[in-house]
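Give me structure tokens for this 512-residue protein.
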Amino acid sequence: MTASKRETERKYEAPSADDTTWLLDLAGVGGIESVVDQGTQDLDAVYYDTDDLRLAGTAAVLRRRTGGTDAGWHLKLPLSRDSREEVQAPLSETVPEILRELALSRTRGANLRPVVQIASTRDVKQLVGSGGTVLAELSIDSVRAESLPATGTPASWSEMEIELSPDSGPALLDAVDKRLGERGIGRAHSSSKLARALEETRVAASRVVDERAVALAPGSAEEEVVRYVNKRIHALVNLDPAVRRDLPDAVHKMRTTCRRLRGVLRSYRSVLDREATDPVRKELKWLSNELGAERDQEVLRERLSAKIEALPGELVFGAVSARLQVWDVGNTSAARVRTLDTLDSARYLALLECLATLTERPPLRAKAAGQPVKVMAKAVLKEYRRLTDRTAYALELPPGTERDTALHEARKAAKKTRYATEAARDSLGKPAKRLGKRIKAVQQVLGEHQDSVVARKALRRVALAAHAASEPSFTWGLLYGQEQAAAERDERELPSIWAAASRRGLRKALNG
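Here you go.
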């Protein structure tokens, strides 16, 4: 069993133990009415990581802590500058398997071992508002840290942290931060106890450094492309735990991240050598397809449920909702198993290793160090031309299966063009953003059309199952007809939407 919570906190250099008058100054700040002493706690935590500190390198923390009110295993995953999600598991002698799995996208299967032990004596105070509401917890810690095994130099320091209660907002932290600053109490230099302990006990100094890492030319096309690629890779790594925990929209976001990576790796072959990136693109396509089963089922369920609910009661014949639920449960369960099996596979781990290598040693081509404007514009132009050709081809075809396929190919080309403009926004600025917005309108109508194609296939299968069970199939046929009409409407609208998006042409768009 695990539990999770969002923690939002800020750390400060500990004020003098001889002067506590600053505590009184917090009354009246951000709704704080009093500071209530809660006594002291003795905490002892052993932090786990890989030999080359892969968790710490991605701002994640895994620890086994005793003492205090939340003894147990804690996996902390970054959310934003001041916030992290903490997943908790009961105390055990070894790393709980569920936490090991949630850390897998960061460890990439490498062995986890104790790296640092941190003992703290914590003086706890509550910042209390009106009606006795606890707004935040303020703690002053006396910290002692040593490496594991104990081969380095022990370290000790004092620090203060303020952690918001679940119902408090960041404005309180800002108000307290301002008052503390007025009293000369500054923010801590390290983002966490672990980061400071790794540095001061010299554990971080022993981290494996890849001497083959590539230095990027400042202000170059390679810097811009690699920065975008790295951001997408980090997003994929961060989304893995959310997908494993089945958090809302996590599968969709991870699949979209795969597509963005694939698109940019193809669009910017003039920057990144395709001999190295094409195999990565192939594996990203595999991952996206495996995640697609669950995501497509989710989209279909929401679409069909909404359409059934919108029908007048007199047009719903038979146990339509029950039939849809039976269909959904079977498909969703199988898709969920497929997703988890994919994330636990050796092939997925190998992909993560390839992505890590891509981050550390991007396969740069000779022209990659050039000025980004020309390189990026040329790549965007190439994708735009491919989109133009595919859209023109699809519009020339008569309605039917062949046209449906061609429109789907045009949709994929629209996505790649958008992703290319995203990566180019730093150098091309507003024109790239403007073009991306125009292409998004085209992509949306093509997406609606493809969703209708997929929905009609699903409706036919559900109707056949209903017919086989001697259930009325009228409603399923009605929904099929609605989807067909929607697709025809999308096809009629596409020419005008495409004309609006392409009227000025790419070169004019890039020139404002």
